[in-house]
Amino acid sequence: MNLYQRVALSNPTAAKGVIKNFGYDIRTNNLAHALRLLVANEGEEALRAVVAIHPDKDLILECYQENKTTKKEDCGCKDKHDHKDNSKELMYYNATGQMTEAQKQAQLTNTFLIAASILILGALLIKNK
């Protein structure tokens, strides 16, 4: 069941109201399809209006806010090591903590491409002067 079906089945009166608020007439018996077309035509503003009448909106927001506000518990180590967030740095490493050969090659290739782009840009700038 997608977003539009859930909203249309749980609160058809509000769904019809959203469609009418955007100046559209409902010419179909498929309210979920009408909501999908409304969002396709009107964009983000219509999507926000549909989400505002979603029956599980409060639960979804509550779960999302819990994940965002979860704090790390004290590890009890009395600052024996650095507690900074290394998640961005560690996402490139495997279980041994070392970069794999494929990751090293990818990093080398990216470096080469950036250097080549800078050289080409410099050559173009010199040529245009």
List keywords for this structure.
129 residues; mainly alpha; 2 domains; 0% strand; elongated
- Compute the number of helices: 7
Overall tally of structural domains:
2
Element string (H = helix, E = strand): HHHHHHH
Strand content: under 5%
How would you characterize this protein structure?
The chain has 129 residues and is mainly α. The protein folds into two domains: 3-68, no CATH class; 87-128. It has seven helices and no strands. The protein is elongated. The chain starts with a helix and ends with a helix.
In short:
The protein is built from 7 helices and no strands. With 129 residues, the chain is mostly helical.
Task: Outline the secondary-structure elements.
Elements: H1 3-10, H2 12-21, H3 31-42, H4 44-52, H5 57-69, H6 87-90, H7 101-128
